[in-house]
Each structure stands twice: as C-alpha cells, then as structure tokens.
C-alpha cells in the first residue's frame, strides 16, 4: 500500500506524532489498536489528526481505514467518525490480523483457541481420511512429512511443511465442512504451528508421529489414525506451552 509522506511537515498543537515501525500505515494503526492505544469502543482521532500522527496523506489514511474495516477492527459511520470495534468482531483468522496481534496474542488466548478447534476437528478428520483418502492424497501427506523430516533444524521450512500436512489431512477427510474449515483456519494454523515449532529445539517427536499417521492411512487403520492425531495434539500442548513462555518473555 502506498505510504507517501506529507510534504508540509506541519503538525497540529497537542498532536504527538507516531513513529512508524513499518512503512505500512495500515499495520501501524492496527498495531496501535491491538496495543489499546485506541481501546475497543473508542473513536479514532479525526482524519486530519491521523494524517499528522502517521505522517501520510488523507488518501492513504482513508485506504488504511477501509482495510481495517474490512477486517473488523474499526467501523466508520457518517457524521460520527471511525470507532474501534470490540475484539469479538475482529477477523482473527485473517493473516494480517494475526500478524498485527503478534506480541499481544497471549492476551487473546488465541493459541489455546486454535488448539481447541484442532482437538475437535483433526482426530475425526484423520479417522475419515483413513477410510476415504485417495492414493494421491496419501502421497501428498507423505511428501509433506518427508519435508518436515528433512527440515527439522529449520523452523520456518518445518512450519511450511507442517501446515501443508494438516491442510492435506483435512482435505483427505473428504468432508466438505472440514475442507472449508481448512481454508478458513489456514493462517491461524500456520501461526499456531510456527509458535509451537519455535518453542522447542527438538522436533523428532513431531516428525515421528506425523510419519506414523501417514502409515496408519496407508493401512486404512481408522483407530490408529485417530490415535496419531490425538498424540500430535498432545505434543502441540507441550510445545505451545513452551511458545507462550517465550512470548511472555519477549512481550
């Protein structure tokens, strides 16, 4: 998004200009909302004040507010202005919103909520996949598992492969609702898996149980597949606890 600087450099009296951590003004405003500089239910500063606070033109501010409104963070009304929405209205499954929440994610208990959703969905998806997965889907899961195994020392690459594994697993359930959920929670799943993957130094346990799940699907072992999914989630509980401690230390 364009972030042209204002040329006049003028500031209204009493306005504390906000330094931009990033050039993306949308992210800067969003992060101030997440930090409760602008609490839920409160109005944002007037448009002209926002221009001076963030050092950009009115066009950029208007575009940024449109983006934030589309993601549920703010709501604009004629003759009233722009108000910060309640956190319950935010689209927390959006990749940008997850990124903006960032250091404050522990306050949202979002990692725990994602884990609860996975506890509900993934064991059933694994059981269905053991019965319904095509040979190609099992091959895709095996490929993702091998990428996890081969990148166990690289958290970023490991997470990419891990996300692919779980995405394919939900698709392989051949349950239309699970497939749609896979798309909906993709960004959140990536965030949660990344958090858990950087929370531990040793990923061998995760690699092992993912490989066992692939084998259970090959054998069409529904009970074994469900058991593997539950064990994966038990590891996620352990790893997320380590991740949340790290977040707490760096917040």
UniProtKB/TrEMBL annotation:
InterPro entries documented for this protein: GntR_C, TF_FadR/GntR_C, Tscrpt_reg_HTH_GntR, WH-like_DNA-bd_sf, WH_DNA-bd_sf
SMART domains attached to this UniProt entry: FCD, HTH_GNTR
Domain HTH gntR-type: start-end pairs: 19-87
Keyword set, alphabetical order: DNA-binding, Transcription, Transcription regulation
GO molecular function: DNA binding; DNA-binding transcription factor activity
Xref: SUPFAM superfamilies: GntR ligand-binding domain-like (SSF48008), Winged helix' DNA-binding domain (SSF46785)
Name under which the protein is recorded: Transcriptional regulator
